[in-house]
Amino acid sequence: MHAPTPAPAWQPADARYAQQAYQRCGRAGLKLPAVSLGLWHNFGGIDDEAHSRRLLRHAVDRGITHLDLANNYGPPPGSAEALLGRWLRDEMAAHRDELLISTKAGYVMGPGPYGDGGSRKYLLDSLDASLKRLGLGHVDIFYHHRPDPQTPLDETLGALDFAVRSGRARYVGLSNYPAALAREAAAQLRALGTPCVIHQPRYNLLERTPEQGLLQALVDEGIGCIPFSPLAQGLLSARYLGGDIPADSRAARAHFLKPAAITPALLAKLRALDTVAGQHGLPLAGLALRWLLQRPAVCSVLIGASQTHQIDAAVAAAAAAPLSDGALQHIDALLADTPASP
Ligand code: NDP
Question: Residue 254: which domain range?
Answer without folding.
Answer: 16-334
